[in-house]
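Record type: ASSEMBLY
Status: queued
Input:
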Amino acid sequence: MNALDHAKQYWYPVAILDSIPTYPDVKNTRLLGMDITITRQKDGALSVAHNEENWLINEVYDHLWTSPSKTPKPIFDVPEAQERDRRFVPCGVVRVRCSPLRAVENFLDIAHFPFVHTDILGSEPHTEVAPYSVDIDDDKDEVIATKVKFFQPQAAKSASDGIITDYVYRVPSPMNAILYKTCPTRDDVQDVIAIFVQPIDEETCDVWPWMALYDDDSTMAEMIEFQQLIFLQDRSILENQVPTKLPLDPKMEIPTRADLTSIAYRRWLKRRGALYGALLNTTDNPKGTSNSVAAE
Amino acid sequence: MTNVAVGLSKDLPNGRVMRAIVGEQDLVVWRSKSGVLSAWDNRCPHRGMRLSHGFVRGEALACVYHGWHYDKTATCRYIPAHPELEPPETIKAQRFSSTEKGGLIWVSIEEQSTEPSIPDNLKAIRSISFACPMMALKQVIRDLDFTLVKDDNSGWVIQEKSDDQWMMKSIKANISLHLFFQNLSEQTCKIHALANSDCAPDTMKKMSQALEHIRRLAEKHYEVVVS
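Status: finished
Output:
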């Protein structure tokens, strides 16, 4: 199975349900290199079409999802989406000129917080990444990172002081990731933040951040603004990584212990053949081979 | 293409970082706090981030993504995520040879490089970028009306000393303009311009304005050609 065929088996977010235009306006977008049109019918029903052919749709996690496959893999479960006392915040969309896989990998990374999200999600000298655990959950076929801890000056909109934040990360499908983190205002629950990635093509993606929080004070606009700021900071990184695609050959990029989640994610992608947006061999990209000596 | 001028020395103060292109090679060029110049492959070996977005800490260049520090030998010396760890010597960025001569920063991406050939008695006017191919720019300069620089169109000559080094000279007015071309892509290029060290300030200013005029001419000319 080639990379595109593999990618076609999944569900992808293509719009926030509340922002789909009313009939007869439509929204045009792209998915996996294909043009699609999102339409809200007169009776309110939604549809997604590519070349006059209707695709399956799914309305979940405040987004409209679609798949080119007639028999897609089931969409991943986020049980917290059933907890109605949470606030559910679709944060809009950020267009990034990078591989969808690079966007997910960056979301799983904490060591960049002090440098990219300075004085918000991290700050010097609190740069150390303590050992944490990464596993592949064989039942769910997910990458799971647990016992991740990091000092954060302002972990969320609702945080007033620096706190040590605990994180758990899940990667339930190649282009979606979910994190569970310490809720600054309550000890008994965790905030949930996810990124749902719409692969426009192998080197461009639309990132749809989504949150399920316990925060009764901040306004919706404040929470969205906070998350947008974080993602715009990430974008300045993601659009300057070379190569644009995610290299799966360990010789091309040198990891350390802090990168365990990234290492597991890359291996998991390779093993399952999720290669859309990935570089398998250094020969695919001669410019990327310059560091091979350093990795030996 | 052994040594290529990539910028003016005065435009890269101590502690600063810039990006440069030589041929197909993307480079980070930076100067440490004490003034040591380096030119490397513009890519952090950790996650491929362009090092030209990084920042200088003392004698090290730090990547903006995770703060990995590289010393002047391009060897990684500090990984903030593991402050106690001494990074393996094998974590290195790829180095290229860089030097300064005649007020310019020169980089060679070839193994053997010869000393840049440039007179010593020059002073820098400016670097200027052009949104047109180098070929088109050169043609515009060859066809130039020299009344731009001095109200005297006679006696100007262009010496094309090499592909990337030209001298425009007015014997009568005793003015020399030294142009160093740098190709950036098929659509963009740069000129680093210098004058003789005894050049008067108002003549320097006129030459800078003339370069701006050349830029407008060349870009407009190219737009017309393309459309």
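Annotation: The interface with chain B takes residues 111-112, 114-116, 124-125, 127-129, 236-237, 240-243, 247, 252-258, 287-288, 290-291, 293-296 of chain A (CB under 8 Å).
Annotation: Helices of chain A lie at 3-7, 100-107, 113-116, 220-238, 260-272, 292-295.
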